[in-house]
Amino acid sequence: MYGSRTKERLTEIYRRLEAAFGDPGWWPGESPFEIAVGAVLTQNTSWRNVEKAIGRLKDAELLSPEALRNVTAEELAGYIVSAGYYNVKARRLKSLMEFLWAECGGRVEALADMPVAEARGKLLSVNGVGPETADSILLYAAGIPTFAVDAYTHRILGRHGLAQEEAGYDEVKAVFEDNLEPDTVMFNKFHALLVKCGHLYCKPKPKCEGCPLEGLLPT
Ligand code: SF4
After folding, report:
1. 100 lines ligand 1 (CB under 6 A)
2. 197 ligand 1 Cβ < 6 A
3. Average per-residue pLDDT for the chain
């Protein structure tokens, strides 16, 4: 798909971004559980706002599978106001807790014991967990080699002729997964590097001059 040299082009994009940015050290979080909670809280908001909410949950000793299982959605909402949409996100976190306790004994790491497609399908059935959140949890919290796609990823691939603008989430994800070996560490870093590139250079109005991917644009 998108030409026979897709693998080589993806590899060159990765190589350049890694050379320019090093290891972005994603995802911030002291435990797989904290990462999973962060994946829900970060929907439609900046990470800075998520950090405040996570800090409040920690201070209140609520950042554990047991504590979040027992707190009510209404009470939880009061601790995550900084993350925005706090009532919705509180309900989503409670749904995620129900799922984790029903399917994984409260341990997000247990997702890795299931076949990838099954774990992903089950996560996607949780209220408020869409493809990006599911893949972020699977990749960054459970260590499963599934590629997480965000708007920056789609934009960069689109501008470099590797995905169409109207491509859906799974189509963009498949560009990586069909062409690269399933490698958790590499998928982890690749996604983070693309986000950094998008944040610094590949904005709605691209700043190609000085971008690590300058010169790789299709002619
Ligand atoms: S800013 Fe330009 S060179 Fe950089 S990723 Fe975007 S389109 Fe490519």
Report:
1. no
2. yes
3. 95
| Predicted pLDDT at 3 | 53
Cβ of 203 less than 6 Å from ligand 1 = no
175 lines ligand 1 (CB under 6 A): no
111 lines ligand 1 (CB under 6 A): no
Which atom of ligand 1 is nearest the CA belonging to 156? 5
CA–CA separation, 30 vs 142, rounded Å? 13
Cα atoms in the 13 Å half-sphere on the side-chain side of 70: 6
pLDDT tens digits for 63-79? 999 999 999 999 999 99
Q: Which residue minimizes the CA distance to atom 8 of ligand 1? A: 213
Distance (Å, whole) CA 143 – CA 136:
10
CB neighbourhood size of 205 (10 A): 5
Q: What is the pLDDT of residues 127-177, one digit of tens each?
A: 999 999 999 999 999 999 999 999 999 999 999 999 999 999 999 999 999
Shortest-distance atom of ligand 1 to CA 201: 1
Q: Is the pTM of this model over 0.90?
A: yes
Query: Which CATH number does the domain 32-141 belong to among 3.40.50.2000, 1.10.10.10, 1.10.340.30, 3.40.50.1220?
Result: 1.10.340.30
d(CA 169, CA 50): 24
